[in-house]
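Sample pair:
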Amino acid sequence: MLKNQSVPKATLQRYPIYLKALRKLDNLGMTRIMSRELAEFVDIEPTTIRRDFSFLGSLGKQGYGYEVASLIKIFDAQLGVNFDEKLIIVGAGNLGRALMNYNRWNHVVGEIACAFDMEPKKTGAVYEIPVYPMSQLTEKMPSGCRIAILTISQDIQETVDLLVSHGIKGIVDFTHEHIQVPKGVLVKRVDVVSMIQELIFETNALK
């Protein structure tokens, strides 16, 4: 968790972008980077980057830039990022399978440990990821698992209640149904239709 609770929401939303870029740069062997170089890599203004980084302390030196490895460690510590985070998918249909194929997320947020589905014909293994029937959730839930990706189309609220009762604290929701969760459980909704509508509106505004 961030130690500085006054960080603007827009800044928080950019931190994962920086972290992903820094890890890629680190893998490419880059040890030091200037804000203007990082700006070109992530398409964010250098002044915005410097301001965003300032919430985490004095991270760079004028004329020298930032140490890539040091920035990664700082983001890890401040954001509580766990690269061994075990995620689960509930719903092994087309979308769930597509997400399983994309596993590891560029080693940024962890990996999908397993999936669950109501239909027996969808159980087994998908892209080497085990898929279990929902009836085995209690015994097959990875130890310490906190995050579930929801891609089902029926019994949604009942499934959410079941996940919460098994310790899930965060849900990535690809469904189109309003769900309710108790205090202390977070839901991030992915609404592709709304995103496309916003993009069309913004594109039209460019004319």
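Residues 18 and 42 are 7 Å apart (CA to CA).
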